Amino acid sequence: MKLVIFGATGGTGRALVQQALDRGHTVTAFVQKASRLRITDARLRLAVGNVLDYGTVEAAIAGQDAVLSALGHKQWLIKTSILSRGTRNILAAMSKCGVRRFVCETSLGVGDSKGRLGILYTFFLIPLLLYFYFRDKELQEQYIMQSDLDWVIVRPAALTNGKQTGAVNDGKNVGSLVFTHSVSRADVASFMLSEVKDDRYLRDTPGVESGATRLTTGFLR
């Protein structure tokens, strides 16, 4: 398949690019700076642009079979709309170009999964440090759910840089109201790639955590 990956230089994004190539896909990595992605492959193309610039987004999506997004940023303490505005551009470009499948990473703690990142995030990190970030994710999900595309919103637990294990728990009961569960970015990437063709969570919002349900105090990205 021809896949375009947004957020390709982030932790989950790099894992998506490498694993997609390993699975034999042809990959377009959407990046702001080409030097930030140190992966080379004959089936990898870099699309340099800004997710807030609709023209560059549409150019990257044209001719693709599916779109994956692992967009993120570190502007946690200021009001921002990078995720929601960028996703709105992606959705508009997909509709115009006739690309149907969209797999997007957000987070537990958003929408009807509120509270499932545990006490640390629910009562401390989200309201004190990540408030604007999570508000932006809420709006990002709303835009996706309002679209008529074939979307899957993947909500991981707290992200780590651990290895790909291939063992994850997924579904609506992932996470905990008390403890903060975790999952490796590599395992999230693997799950997202599986959802490109799998319809079990079509137009749904599965959570994902490590099959070992390890606890963490780390940040989401």
Tell me what you see in this structure.
33% of the residues lie in helices and 21% in strands. The longest helix is centred in the middle third of the chain and has 16 residues, at 82-97. The two termini are 27 Å apart. It has helices at 11-22, 54-61, 82-97, 118-128, 131-146, 185-194; strands at residues 2-6, 26-31, 44-48, 66-69, 101-105, 150-156, 158-160, 168-171, 182-184, 207-210. Helix 2 packs across helix 3 and helix 3 (82-97) packs parallel to helix 5. It has six helices and ten strands. The chain has one domain: Rossmann fold, CATH 3.40.50. The chain is α/β, with parallel strands linked by helices and 221 residues long. Mean pLDDT is 95; it is low at 217-221. The strands form two sheets. An eight-stranded mixed β-sheet has the order 3-2-1-4-5-6-10-8, with helices on both faces. The chain has a two-stranded parallel sheet with strand order 7-9.
